[in-house]
Design brief:
The protein has 428 residues and is of the alpha/beta class. 40% of the residues lie in helices and 13% in strands. The mean pLDDT is 88.
Amino acid sequence: MNIYQELKERGFIYQETDSAAIERKLTSEKVVFYCGFDPTGNSLHVGHLLPVMAMRLLQKAGHVPVALVGGATGQIGDPSGRSTARNMLTKETVAANVKCLQSQLARFIKVENGAAHFANNNDWFGNLMLLDFLRDIGSKFSVNRMLAQKSVESRLENGLSFLEFSYSLLQGYDFYHLNKELNCTLEIGGQDQWGNMVAGTELVRRMYEEEREVHCLTIPLLMNPATGQKFGKSVGGTSVWLDPERTTVFDYYQFWRNSDDNMVEDLLKKFATDLPFSEAVALVNSGNINRAKEILAYEATKLAHGEAAAAQAYIAAGSKFGFADPENKIPTTSTIAAISTSSVAADLPETAVPADEIANGLQLPRLLVLSGICKSTSDGRRLIQGGAVSLNDVKITDVAHTLTATDFSEGALTLRAGKKNFRKVVLK
């Protein structure tokens, strides 16, 4: 499918100025597009990632993203979706936050060789004269139209300062500036940004004598049906951050691993964009929803923290709670399939087996007793017959299975019984 249809199939499109025109541009031109992020904190959280994932898809299709971090607009605060004004941040705090967010966004978007642009709107607003802005830009906006925006209308009863009211003008000017400097013709963002984004497209058209084709599309909010909250909160209602100092890599992985079953397919489509679209459906229909969750968690963590950290989180979680598909029976294009779960041995309880125990062969039920997993060989046989025992990720169902020294690769093997009982067995 073409990139527009893929965005639509993955659920990234909510509102758009002209669907036919946007599809035509995305399938016939190299489009420069932008998405804005206000640095109201020093880290993005999971709730910010929907437009970031759309940016990744568009970039993979050959389009050029502009990641705009609002060093100027962050000093005001977007009133959209809020019942009260944001706390004012100092210029120094905003500037520090800009650097943090740009660094995090660079993990998701390729920046080499002009593949993307990073922008800070303080670069053009910082020296703009107020009277020039009011005369040249303010004259292009209708107050009546601005009052009709949901982000403004919903705040009028509780009070809205002129500072916040002006936010729409600044965001609209961002689009005009990027169009003029980078030929940016498309803006994407969350559905609560629709009014500001349309204001931007209208401003661009009014600033030129000739017709300019510019568009915007919004991405729907993602809600957790289990909690009724916007997606991106942990069970306790705390935001899940990309900064590992605020949310550890393990907790980040576990957030995705513990996703609601009913959301897994949608989350795979939206947050595991390195996997083919059809794979999201196939994984959920595989009959092993927990393996689908493992792959979702691994892919999401890999994007945010790198492949090595994702693998480590996967191994750590699996060693603690068990692996959903230790033998990799379910097909996947994810690199998770290349990770040997036997590497959990480094962090597992260790059991030493004397070499003379295996001189004439050591039966598996006896090993289960020596390792402390079972109290008797009869208990061990029942576990084996029930398909609960594995050696180095290979399930063993033969109660007469006998181990020799050759089974101990580099002097050790991994023994698993059930989902949570692991041992590193060392030959001595």
